[in-house]
Design brief:
By secondary structure, this protein is α+β, with helices and mostly antiparallel strands. It has twelve helices and twelve strands. It has a five-stranded mixed beta sheet with strand order 1-2-3-4-5. The two termini are about 80 Å apart.
Length: about 600
């Protein structure tokens, strides 16, 4: 059964409580029930004192385990450890501290690498921000020029509108004047008609006068027609002026909208510039901190490298000293061997003499059981003198065979022995230094292998993703050569094109092999991008289908990286933003033609 939630909440408030063992263990899901069954009622505390304090306060029948290895059974018995005093450090704790220090060192190395990567990323971000600031500044300049040009156009349009309005007012006044003239003419016509009516009732004498008046009416009618035509023309001009005025008003509204959009873009650009300045300030502070950290780390590395170089120099010096001392000690060693051989011969002679004396004493005791007399007081019989002389002659010959004895050889032996001890200590130090260097080399090799394997995994994943994007499917991966040393092993590329089986690189066609190599180069550029990339006729062996893929892919990558491509292929040339053509119109004279593709498209509509 699991621990009830109420008791678990009470345990959370206890000092030194870490949790239930089943919840602190990571395992595969299929082993979850077994872990819950085994550790579901086991509590974990930091140390024994806090666990005992909990046992005194509570009486729950649970198994308690401490980080030091102590176990408190539900019955109250303590096993698996002992009471830890403040002046004692257990082996487990020391091992735990060693593991913590190793983990801390590993974390420091990881943080160092992260700081280096962050510094590179921050440098790239700073460059991108500077590019954005330069682009924003250029946009601001263009906006300012456009804004000034629009203001000039608006002023011109306003002056034209004022001119048209004055012409419109003049036209209105002319129309009013024509209307007044028309009214006067109509009044005159009405008067003439009335007079003609009166004249019809008058005498025949006034027929001529009526004819005269009729002629005047005809003249006035013609003048009226002329005035109507003038009115109609003025009305047409008025309509044209109204249409022009409306068009100018529409243009003003459009220019005002464009001006408002440019003003909004100006405000946005100013805000973006301020935001970029703030970001740059923050990034510069981060860069400064990272630079200080990197400088500190580089100083530490330089110190370690200097120590390594000094150690290597010391080792070389000690090796040369050892060689010199060996050359110096070889004659001494030979002489020492001669002295030791002579010493052994003397020891043997002394032993023989002592044995001979002991034999003489034994014979003396056998012959004369009394105490051996003093040689000075001993009287040698005549019959023994001859034998003693023979013995003395024998001893003389043996002494002559020994040769002259050098009494200074003992001191020389002691000095050689002391020098031999010093040289032995030097040799032991050299052996220790050699072992230390071998260990350092092995450690360096392990670090290099680890970093190589980690980078190989990243390159493999990037190569796989890039290959899928270029070929629209398939698989590709890197594989180390087997049965070789890690540093001597080569890297093979194995490819599975869409709809085909896995093949080695040398079994592909020329275009497929070239596009695969291009994918590998681009995968490396994605991991460690560069400010620009120079490609010299890299698409020469591609067919039309693979060439289209290459052009599309390099167009996408050009959003984050600048490419300088030397090519003769039409599809690659079309994908460029700026095209430079180099020709030789005369012998030894090159001519360069530059085409800005976006500008040409804009000019072409």
């Amino acid at each position: 059964q699991e621990i009830p939630p109420r008791i678990e909440r009470e345990l959370q408030r206890k000092d030194g409580y870490l949790g239930i063992a089943s919840k602190l263990v990571d395992c595969e899901p299929r082993y979850g029930q077994a872990i819950e069954y085994l550790l579901g009622k086991t509590l974990v505390f930091t140390d024994l004192s806090k666990a005992l304090r909990y046992c005194k306060d509570e009486r729950y029948p649970y198994l308690i385990v401490c980080l030091d290895g102590d176990i408190i059974n539900p019955s109250g018995a303590i096993t698996g450890g002992y009471w830890q005093t403040s002046n004692h450090t257990s082996v487990l704790k020391r091992k735990g501290e060693e593991r913590k220090l190793l983990e801390l060192r590993k974390q420091n190395l990881i943080e160092k690498e992260d700081n280096r990567q962050q510094a590179l990323g921050v440098s790239q971000q700073r460059e991108q921000l500077e590019d954005r600031i330069r682009a924003t500044s250029n946009d601001l300049v263009q906006y300012q020029l456009s804004y000034d040009a629009l203001n000039q156009q608006i002023n011109i349009i306003k002056s034209r509108i004022k001119h048209k309005e004055s012409e419109f007012q003049t036209g209105l006044e002319q129309v009013k004047e024509i209307d007044r003239e028309i009214m006067q003419v109509e009044q005159r016509i009405a008067g003439i008609k009335q007079a003609s009516e009166e004249m019809k009732n008058s005498n025949a004498e006034k027929v001529t006068e009526v004819e005269k008046y009729r002629d005047e009416v005809e003249v006035n009618k013609r003048e009226l027609e002329v005035l109507k035509e003038r009115l109609k023309a003025n009305q047409d001009q008025l309509k044209i002026a109204e249409i022009e005025l409306n068009r100018q008003k529409t243009n003003i509204d459009n220019f005002q909208k464009v001006l408002a959009s440019y003003q909004q873009s100006w405000d946005t650009a100013v805000k973006t510039k301020q935001q970029l300045k703030n970001e740059i300030t923050g990034e510069l502070s981060r860069i400064e901190d990272l630079t200080k950290s990197i400088t500190r780390k580089n100083q530490e590395l330089a110190t370690i490298a200097g120590l390594g170089i000094n150690l290597e120099k010391d080792i070389k010096l000690l090796i040369s000293k050892v060689e010199n001392l060996k050359r110096e000690t070889n004659p001494l060693q030979d002489r020492l061997n001669e002295v030791e051989a002579r010493e052994r011969n003397l020891e043997l002679i002394c032993l023989r003499v002592e044995n001979h004396i002991r034999g003489l004493e034994a014979r003396w005791k056998e012959t004369f059981p009394a105490t051996i007399p003093d040689p000075d007081s001993c009287v040698i019989p005549a019959y023994q003198v001859k034998e003693l002389k023979k013995t003395i002659e024998l001893l003389h010959r043996e002494i002559e065979e020994m040769g002259p004895v050098d009494l200074g050889s003992i001191e020389e032996y002691e000095a050689s022995q002391e020098r031999y001890g010093f040289m032995l200590n030097q040799y032991e130090d050299l052996v220790k230094a050699r072992d230390s260097l071998n260990e350092l080399l092995k450690k360096t090799e392990r670090i290099m292998i680890k970093e190589f394997e980690e980078f190989l995994i990243l390159v493999n994943q990037s190569f796989k993703n890039t290959f899928i994007e270029v070929f629209s499917g398939g698989e590709a991966y890197l594989k180390l050569e087997e049965e070789k040393e890690r540093f001597d092993a080569g890297v093979n590329i194995e490819v599975k094109l869409p709809g085909k089986r896995v093949q080695a690189l040398n079994l592909l066609s020329g275009g497929e092999r070239a596009l695969t190599c291009i994918s590998f180069i681009f995968s490396l550029l994605r991991l460690k991008p560069t400010p620009f990339c120079l490609l010299d006729e890299i698409d020469a062996s591609l067919d039309e289908i693979n060439l289209a893929r290459f052009a599309q892919f390099i167009k996408e990558l050009s959003k984050a990286m600048q490419f300088i491509v030397i090519t003769h292929r039409q599809a690659t040339i079309k994908s460029g933003d700026t095209i430079y053509g180099v020709s030789m119109p005369e012998q030894g004279v090159s001519s360069v033609i530059a085409i800005d593709v976006p500008e040409e498209k804009y000019l072409a509509g």
